[in-house]
Write a structure and sequence with these properties.
The complex is a heterodimer of chains A (460) and B (276). With 460 residues, chain A is of the alpha/beta class. In chain A, 43% of the residues lie in helices and 11% in strands. The chains are: A alpha/beta (460), B alpha+beta (276).
Chain lengths: 460, 276
């Protein structure tokens, strides 16, 4: 098994460590049968034989941190749930994966939904919950089908259901009822924010709530609630099955374990790469064929569009929570979107900003108004109608959103603005002085270098 | 009916015919039973009424309100917040082209422009035969398969102008169209029923698409000592028909509103110079 990432190492066999993705190439990988053939539900059996507090302690000691972006320790989240309070406790899995660039939970749930179900059973045991929910974004029907099927199989096998049925089929005493409800969302990026997700799950407009109280105290139906990302929960069974030492043998002291890195954009081999935390983008590119032939990396996001852009100079930044933080960005969702020199950074940032303006829920003024005005300025700059003072205005508006909006969507909207102005101010100026965009968008397309393509020139 | 209501408020929406109502009520009760609090069933119920009529009608809103003990205003407030609920009649197939940054750059903008021209419709509009509603969509969590097109929320990965054009032609001609990941297409109404929480009844639907797509397996293959396959490129060439103009740049399709320069009817728009 891979240990910590060696600098200069480039062999994928040594650098990668498929755990969640280890059997995605097997026939019918999403079925209970296949999962059981690959050590499935072993972790659950161990966990159910342990006192709940010991499970929490184990996950905490393993050092698992949230894979949804913020990196909060998962075990600590579980520990915050008050016990003996007489209220129902809920586990809600955030499967609303919508952050631009992020594409790990959806392939995970498509190929291996039982890892999530098993993790949920363990988490429910730990926090004493008898009802858990999967909030899946609605726009991924193939994944919804497999979740419906996986939950059905889990009921049939007695992993879920009434306490009686579970005791009978699992041969374990003292099991409570456990139900999982699969809930499809309806299209709203903001519902990935945990308190907006809870409002949405309660049948309301998905708008974030004021914190405190935090969900651990007053979450779903004002009851203690844990909200965890898909990958975080799906990583729990392996920790239970193989132990915290095994988990800690990967990654670093503060960022232990394995994770899914999603490589996309102008690269030779986009896709999912599962390995220990702390791998670098250079290592991932070296092993996977690099940037597409004949081009070079211009800018990239370490964890989705809400994490500040990085450039070629950051290729050796360890992709863990501390490493990316020290480079002035965030690990986020490990969505490594790579753009080569054909890409106009103003175009990229304008489009992301249009996204944030479209998805702003409208609850707070800095985000609702700020994203609107950012779009106006950016569109003018991109079209060659901007003025030099607009650049200052952009930074000023972004500063009035960042840290002053109700939830992290606003901070996310400010990230591409700040970071692109930091690294590519000249390119903005070029649009203004040159009266338009100097890039040809046809050159950025995936088919641009395809010799069979008889592409007409596109005027920029 | 005009878009703007003047004078007297509208009469209450008509109810469903009795047998439709009875059938939907049975479904709704099943959905409501899944939640500790009935209001949580509102999003699934809106998907359910959409599966009956293809969009959320006033009758559908009234049905949800009655089932959950809410006002129609409360239901409408929720229905208008989420982009997946349609507010007017639309096509059997919703073709959504991702134009968020990564897909746009990789070719999504070109695909969206080409489909608009080819189908003769704009964003959110439906073809005359009622088959296709074309939309641009936001990131759909498949960036390693860019550019991505979704049809009734099934994945069409690694698209080109040519492959997407052929796909919509096939849909309009009634030919079978299979996604790269997902089940053979069903209609928008049938999709809405799955979203309401009723599993797809078609045999083979869950299996369709295989275990994982090629990009999902790249890292695993490398870790096993196999060679990286190289990017999946559509076998078809992606040229524009020579009699058509290639897409213009920049292309921004979405609200918020136009700026003054592009909107001469409102010269006092957001970025007008003084005295302009």
């Amino acid at each position: 098994m891979t240990v910590t990432v060696e600098r200069g190492e480039s062999s994928p066999e040594k650098l990668l460590a498929p755990v969640l993705s280890s059997f995605w190439d097997q026939p019918k990988s999403w079925t209970l049968d296949t999962y059981l053939r690959h050590e499935g539900y072993e972790g659950m059996r161990k966990a159910l034989a342990m006192p709940p507090d010991d499970v929490i302690a184990l996950v905490k000691d393993a050092g698992l941190r949230g894979r949804g972006g913020a990196g909060f320790p998962t075990g600590m989240k579980w520990q915050f749930i008050p016990q003996g309070d007489g209220k129902p406790h809920y586990l809600v899995v955030n499967a609303d994966e919508s952050e631009p660039g992020t594409c790990k939970d959806i392939p995970l749930l498509f190929a291996n939904p039982h890892a999530l179900i098993e993790g949920m059973i363990i988490a429910c045991h730990a926090i004493r919950s008898e009802h858990a929910f999967i909030y899946l974004r609605g726009e991924v029907v193939p994944v919804l089908r497999r979740l419906h099927e996986a939950v059905r199989e889990a009921y049939e096998a007695g992993y879920l259901g009434t306490g009686d049925a579970r005791r009978r089929k699992l041969g374990l005493d003292g099991l409570p009822d456990l139900d999982i409800t699969v809930h499809a969302g309806a299209g709203a990026y903001i519902c990935g924010e945990e308190t907006a997700l809870l409002d949405s799950l309660e049948g309301r407009r998905g708008q974030p709530r004021l914190r405190p109280p935090f969900p651990a105290v007053a979450g779903l139906y004002a009851c203690p609630t844990v909200v965890n990302n898909v990958e975080s929960i799906a990583s729990v069974p392996a920790i239970l099955h193989k132990g915290k030492e095994w988990f800690r043998s990967m990654g670093s002291e503060k960022s232990p374990g394995f994770t899914l890195y999603s490589l996309s954009g102008h690269v030779a081999n986009p896709g999912q790469y599962e390995g220990p935390l702390g791998i670098t983008l250079r290592q991932l590119l070296d092993m996977s064929g690099g940037i597409r032939p004949g081009h070079r990396l211009k800018f990239w996001t370490p964890g989705g569009s809400s994490t500040p852009l990085l450039t070629e100079e950051h290729l050796d930044v360890p992709l863990d929570y501390e490493g990316v933080g020290a480079a002035g960005s965030m690990l986020g969702t490990k969505a490594l979107q790579c753009f080569d020199e054909t890409t106009c950074v103003v175009r990229a940032v304008t489009r992301w900003t249009e996204f944030y303006a479209h998805e702003s829920c409208g609850k707070c003024t800095p985000c609702r108004e700020g994203t609107y005005w950012l779009v106006q300025l950016l569109r003018d700059i991109e079209a060659g109608k901007g003025r030099m003072e607009d650049l200052e205005k952009l930074a000023d508006i972004a500063d009035n959103i960042n840290g002053k909006s109700f939830c992290a969507l606003g901070d996310g909207a400010a990230s591409p603005i700040f970071s692109s102005l930091k690294y590519f101010k000249e390119e903005y100026q070029q649009h203004i002085t040159g009266g338009g965009c100097p890039f040809d968008p046809a050159k950025s397309t995936v088919w641009a270098d395809d010799p069979s393509s008889t592409h007409l020139g596109v005027n920029a | 009916m005009t878009d703007v209501q003047l004078g007297m408020p509208q009469l209450p929406a008509p109810d469903y015919p009795a047998e439709v109502r009875a059938r939907l009520e049975a479904d709704a009760r099943e959905v409501i039973a899944r939640y500790p609090d009935s209001r949580s069933a509102l999003l699934p119920l809106l998907h359910l009424v959409q599966s009956e009529e293809g969009h959320v009608t006033r009758t559908g809103v009234r049905f949800c309100a009655e089932m959950l003990g809410l006002t129609t205003a409360e239901v409408t407030a929720v229905a208008t917040f989420y982009t997946m609920y349609r507010r007017g009649p639309s096509g059997d197939y919703q073709v959504g082209v991702c134009t968020n940054t990564l897909c746009a750059v990789m070719g999504g903008d070109a695909i969206f422009e080409a489909l608009q021209r080819h189908l003769g419709v704009g964003n959110g509009e439906t073809t005359e035969d009622g088959k296709i509603t074309l939309e641009h969509i936001e990131c759909n969590a498949a960036c390693d398969y860019a550019p991505v097109v979704m049809v009734n929320w099934e994945f069409f990965d690694n698209q080109t102008v040519d492959s997407a054009t052929r796909m919509v032609d096939d849909l309009r001609a009634g030919r079978t169209v299979e996604p790269t990941r997902g089940a053979p297409l069903c209609t928008f109404k049938e999709t809405a029923r799955i979203l309401a929480g009723f599993p797809d009844p078609r045999p083979g639907a869950v299996e369709a698409g295989g275990s994982a797509g090629p990009a999902s397996l790249v890292g695993l293959r490398l870790a096993k000592g196999e060679a990286a396959p190289g990017r999946v490129v559509s076998p078809r060439s992606a040229d524009y028909p020579s009699d058509e103009e290639a897409p213009a740049h920049p292309s921004s399709h979405d609200a918020p509103q136009r700026t003054s320069a592009s909107d001469p009817h409102h010269p006092s728009g957001p970025v007008a110079e003084e005295g302009e």
